[in-house]
Amino acid sequence: MLGRSVINPTLIKTIYKLRYRPMNLEDIPRVHEIDQHSFSLPWPEKSYHFELTENPSTMSLVADIVQEDCEPFIIGMSIVWIITTEAHIATIAIHPDFRGSGYGKKLFAETLRQSIQRGALLATLEVRENNLTAQELYRSFGFTIISRRPHYYHDNNEDALLMTVEPMGLQYLAWLNKLGI
């Protein structure tokens, strides 16, 4: 289903369950819709197709909300490239209708969990210099700014901040699980 969300975000906590699963080809239209609502430079649909069918380093997730006797509804997604022991978080987003309720934090935690389970010992990502909300989220997971990529974003020449967290082994995984998110 495309277009505006038909699920009331304020009711999710009480009647819906959140689940994570690997992204599949049938998810691409909804994932692309979330991407378009989330970023000024969204990925083209063919990029998601490539990640799912041709890139062996890709770990892809969607976050569904599920209600009994209803079709699951995708509210978020992430794409990570696992390269040896590094998890590079290429993109992560929650549909705007579902932001502000902790779903981004939950999806980010699950993305990191699954990255560790696939052997990642550190994680990296780029974030817009002016995206303070995202930076705050990443810092809450121990990420720090390690460098700047000048004029990284082509739509406005904004700098990207390169953030990382390490080490991410079993202790970090235990810490994530202890957070209860």
N-end to C-end Cα span: 27 Å
Rg value? 16 Å
Helical content (DSSP H or I, runs of 4+): 25-40%
Total individual domains = 1
* Whole-number mean pLDDT: 92
What is the CATH architecture annotation?
A: 3-Layer(aba) Sandwich
How many β-strands, per DSSP? 7
Query: What pattern of helices and strands is seen along the backbone?
Result: HEHHEEEHEHEEH
Largest sheet data: 7 strands, mixed
SS element count, helices: 6
Enter the CATH topology name: Aminopeptidase
The amount of beta strand, in percent, is 25-35%
What is the CATH first-level class name?
Alpha Beta
Given as residue ranges, the uncertain stretches (5+ residues, pLDDT < 50) are: none
Q: Please state the overall shape, judged from the principal axes of the Cα atoms.
A: globular
Class of secondary structure makeup: alpha+beta
Strand order of the largest sheet: 1-2-3-4-5-7-6
Output the CATH homologous superfamily.
Gcn5-related N-acetyltransferase (GNAT)
Task: Outline the structure in words.
The chain is an alpha+beta fold. It has a single domain, classed as Aminopeptidase (3-Layer(aba) Sandwich). The protein is 32% helix and 33% strand. It contains six helices and seven strands, in the order H-E-H-H-E-E-E-H-E-H-E-E-H.
